[in-house]
Amino acid sequence: MAHMAIRMEVNEFAERFIPIPPGILLEGRLKWPTDIFAELAEGGTLLESEIAKRFVDAINVYNVSPGMKMVSSPDKPELDDVEDFKQKIDAAFFRDGSVPTDGRTHWADQLVSVEFKRHETNKDPFDDRNDYSIEATADERKKVRGQIITYAEVVFRVQHRTFLFMLLVIGRNFRLLRWDRSGTIVTRAIDYVAHPEILCELLWRMSLQTDEQLGLDPSATRLLPQDHGYKLMDFYAQERDSDLATEERVLEATELASMGDPPVFKYVRLSFRTSLQGQWPRYRLEVPCDDGVRAFLVCKPHFYANGMAGRGTRGYVALDCRTQRFVWLKDAWRVYYEAMMQEGEVLHGLNAKHVAHIPTLLCHGDVRDQTTKTCDIWEEAQAATQQSLPSSPSLRTIPLSSSATLVSPQPFKTSSSRKRSRTEVEAEDSDGSEEFTLRRHMHYRIVVNEVALPLSEFSTGRKLVSVIIDCVEAHRDAVQRAKIMHRDISGGNILIYPSIDCGKPKQALCVIWKGILCDWEMSKSTKVEEPLALPRQPPRTGTWQFLSVGMLSGKPKAVEIPDELESFVHVLLYYAVRYLRSNCPNGAGFLDTYFDAYTVQNGVFTCGQKKESTLKDALLEIQRDVPLEFASPLDDVFGELLPLFKAYYKVVTYEHVESEAKKMLPPPIVAQGPPKADGDSPPPPAFLEDRDPSELANLKSLLAPHRKKKRKVRSLKPTAEEEDDAALLADHDAMLSILAGAVDSLEWSPRDKVGDLVPDDHKPLYPVAPEKGPSVRTVKRRRFASMIDYGSCHSSDFVAPSKRAAKSMVERQ
């Protein structure tokens, strides 16, 4: 979702978001000299570093924000990996008790972030002219806007926040920004040298706010080294001799005798221990449960979603304070509207129906009714009338009713805190409307028992197919037993869960890898009809790379079983090409072309050509006339499944053509009065009388010597066999049968996994998320998870493929 800004006049911003607490009089505030920013009068010619130095000195010398200090970070990023990109914001406000002195950014402690820019029009990322979008479009302005969005994103990633204030200083002007997961609220640019009282009062008001009023999440308690929870995390992060190796095997007697209760796998404790490294802050998070709230200890997220606007999902390997067990905790800002069930509600229902191969719900709930506020301002702005600014922008003279969006207003929508219907929100999502509509988000957390491995950790091609079978079965049971459609089948949502179970009958306990289908937040009841109004950009639910050809057609369509089954095929193909031995000389290039490519039809981003031709023509090729082969039962899997989808799309296309043809038929002619008798019919006009047959024969023979043999035109109508094949995708049985046949084959190689064939420095051929293009949720768990050496969690005699092996494999081809 694109990030959008909304303009608000400074006095309304102050009254709404930084009010003066009860008992404190405005007249009792400190008096600031009118020339407090005199040294910045020539701000139009100063460098950013000099603006920052003089500004920080003025704020601190005159104690504009009592109890807070403004500190610059002139040239040093964070000490370690607190954030991946080593971003460096210019300055920030800190509480007096936690003021840094080393000149570094200290993302975890910032209360209000500050960025400085030179006094140039092209350095202001926003445009106050009423006839223009407030989000300025010049390249340099876009660059600055992208920069401050990234800074806000880093703060939200490291801290637990509901919103963030940011001060943007551009030469002699300033703007105050408020970020949340819906968008940004921005004040007009004001000359603080000419009107110092406005900026000083705003910063004074900020100093009076509590941490919660400054955006810190009260349900997340920061842990310090002396706290019991902090020490508890260190204790449970330590390696244990009783921890179990990860690979599948029959457990030995010594392992059975020493393993803990409950058993802990090495990869789980390693994931938790790795999250504690570096300077990431540790927290105790509250999660609603049946008897109140439960507390969980977390540090660095195992994965996080990119971007500032949207769900902002973060996943943690957490320690349960009640049981001291490791669990999986997901923190997100879910889209908040009617008929949208919480993911925990879905899992609770699936668990009650005994659907296997899905997470086991521990607890979940909305966090203290925390919702985004930017969308409320957006809705109000639709009804507001633009009013001109007064010549002197006093904090108390700018009219409160002058809020204006920084983008072109759309027709008014009722402003309230009500939940919007699914239809409303999906329509907003679908018409290219990231620019025009903001979504309301609710803070939400969910905890499940299972801490799983990413799908990329599969050991062999056979195990990859086996994991897919488990998840197809989970999908089948969810549809049949609970009437729930997942709607986001992707590589990030199919995980491997090592568990202890009996293998074959009468066999000892074993470590067995099973598939687990997770992330049911986008799921929907099959009993609820989806809105199919035709917007400019049809709604797409899911991950671009793994969506079906039908869902990427650019036409409105409900997610159906064939779409989900096709997504499973795409997942299988992706991981097979990326990690298994094949005849593909350039796996990374194939993945780019097949999964990330797109076409544009009438301004709508649709399916890439290679994916579409593979499914519709049943041709899985590296290049023209060169089939992709794995020299394993996978060839049979794709060879049997793709013709079913070819038949399915032929049936779908034919039905669509027939439906459109019926719409084009002229309306029936209604007879006017009783029909006339045959004798009453007038004779046909003379020019319609039959020609001489011999004359017609002579005319027809003129082309005969030149006419070629008539080419046989392929019929659009499916054959009976094709209709039967297409019908096999109406449920899960055919796919499960084909996959099971492959798993049962004896032709698998135990060493067919050769490592990751996509180099670390690979640059995709296609932008994964083109501007105004596909709404992509990238394959999750890739950021932090990629830093964990899961291979170290295997037994000493287990041989796992390495990057070096993958590289040598490519070199041999």
Describe the structure.
- The chain has 813 residues and is of the alpha+beta class.
- The chain has 2 domains: 5-215, tt1808, chain A, CATH 3.90.1570; 222-370 and 441-638 and 728-812, Orthogonal Bundle (Transferase(Phosphotransferase), domain 1), CATH 1.10.510.
- The protein contains 19 helices and 27 strands.
- The strands form 6 sheets. Strands 1, 2, 3, 4, 5, 6, 7, 8 and 17 form a 9-stranded mixed β-sheet that branches.
- Helix 14 crosses helix 15 (633-664) and helix 15 crosses helix 17.
- The longest helix is centred in the last third of the chain and has 32 residues, at 633-664.
- The two termini are 41 Å apart.
Write a brief caption for the model.
This protein is an alpha+beta fold and about 800 residues long. It has two domains: about 5-215, tt1808, chain A; about 220-370 and about 440-640 and about 730-810, Orthogonal Bundle (Transferase(Phosphotransferase), domain 1). The model is unreliable at about 385-390, about 395-435, about 530-540, about 770-785 and about 805-813 (pLDDT under 50).
